[in-house]
Amino acid sequence: QRLGASALDSIHEYRLSGWLVQQEDIHRIVLYQTDYTMTPWTQRCVRQADCILIVGLGDQEPALGELEQMLENTAVRALKQLILLHKEDSPSPARTVEWLNMRSWCSGHLHIRCPRRIFSRRSLVKLKEMYEKVFQKTVDRHSDFSRLARVLTGNTIALVLGGGGARGCSHVGVMKAMEEAGIPIDIVGGTSIGSFIGALYAEERSAVRTKQRAREWAKAMNSVFKTVLDLTYPITSMLSGSAFNTSIAEVFEEKQIEDLWIPYFNVTTDITASAMRVHKDGSLWRYVRASMSLSGSLPPLCDPKDGHLLMDGGYINNLPADIAKTLGAKTVIAIDVGSQDETDLSNYGDSLSGWWLLWKRLNPWAEKVKVPDMSEIQSRLAYVSCVRQLEVVKGSAYCEYIRPPIDRFKTMDFGKFDEIYDVGFQHGKVVFGGWSRGDIIDKMLKDRKSLDFSESKERNASLGGNAAFTDLAEIVSRIDPPKSYHLTDAEESDYLTEYEDEAMDAMRGEEEEGQEPEGAEWNQDPVFEPEEERNVRKRTSLKASEESLSQSDT
């Protein structure tokens, strides 16, 4: 409408290019919509873009379209993201792996749950009327479209949940308080119990449903009967892991990480390669189970991809806020539920009998002995190995560190789920209430880059809104002439060089002998005699000596 119907003609190439460049200078983000085929306009859009969004319908077959095939064969360096659209009442995403396998050139993907108006066909007039009403409503910061906007503008908010056994039940309470405070979550990650709770939330997107499913699982974990049946000969571990595997698999079934509504990752310790592993794809229940495998209690899980042995991620990174930052998060909310230092443990000497401890615990009249059990020791080891990394995370500018008061609960207190949940919820209400009264939440949701872009435009306007390139060059290259300074007597330094020190010593010596220094003697001193005068004097003396020699010869 602005450039006319013939704007795309080759004769107007310069005019169109200039107008597009002008739009990119005026606006921070310019959205290009391509045609359905590789037309000249589509080629221009692909050439101009820094990020290409491949939009598809999640309930359709993941076949490559004509435009995608051409794009795959074209050398385009722009970042490519797969966006899958789903209806509001559609089930959880599925077959995302097939979409990604056919588009290996995509660097990532997002699932978008869309309102019904997205899939309805209306005339242009009715569309304008409908969206005028939509724009009058308050923006839903929790919607998937808002998440997409934050991802594209670099303003994502990540939630990272630390490991700590049953103390991790407080994660659910904190997440409920976050929802009530209106804080959106764009990325979820965690370690150990944090990986389990985070996976539930990434699948449900609701703290209420997450609480229901987590409580059911915690109840099963508190079953002594299942634990006894899973005991095995303790060569690798005390438990075979079969019962624990079943409990995790029943929660997540055969869901893949790629099928979660919210982008998700978890951390495990690869004892085969002695390295940290970050899992962003693959079997969900297997990697959650691997991230929760405490040494001595459960055997390592064999990675279905390469067969490496994976253990609890708490041994290498118990609060992976730094991983969330590397994945593009602007702000990371990290919840720590790991073990804390205890200095009131009993001194039992050089050896410890389990039978003696059992008698102390069963005898009501015996003196109580405070000694950590095997699960507590494993949890403490995981926390100790990550102390330095935790201090770095707590001191970073991008991280908002939260620790609920859950130190009185033990690693295996899954039977106290509701009590631990309430502690996390009440603590979260206090913390996020303070954030709401301050400006922390506003800073999280504010697009800082847009503000910087606006400020830079204002600075450029201060140079002159219509300044030409030559005017700008003149401003930048304007150099003040050098200034010459003449020292006054008051500005001269009292500092003497080594030569002046020697002269002063000579003067003092003559004064002590009662002799006045003469100016001729100063001039005869080779130190203070200028080089030109010294050369003239040498030539004069040489000439005089030659004349005397010639006279003597005669």
From TrEMBL:
DGA/G, short sequence motif: residues: 312-314
Short motif GXGXXG, span: 163-168
Active site: 192 (nucleophile), 312 (proton acceptor)
Listed Pfam families: NTE_Ploop, Patatin
Keyword Cell membrane in record: no
Any one GO BP annotation for this protein: phosphatidylcholine metabolic process
Main localization category: membrane
Chain segments carrying region Disordered: 501-554
Subcellular location: Membrane
Top-level taxon of origin: Eukaryota
GO cellular component: endoplasmic reticulum; membrane
Intervals of motif GXSXG: 190-194
Extent of Acidic residues compositional bias: 501-519
Positions of the PNPLA domain: 159-325
GO molecular function: phosphatidylcholine lysophospholipase activity
Sorted UniProt keywords: Hydrolase, Lipid degradation, Lipid metabolism, Membrane, Transmembrane, Transmembrane helix
Membrane protein topology class: Single-pass membrane protein
Protein family per UniProt: Belongs to the NTE family.
Protein name: Neuropathy target esterase-like protein
Organism: Callorhinchus milii
Lineage of source species: Eukaryota, Metazoa, Chordata, Craniata, Vertebrata
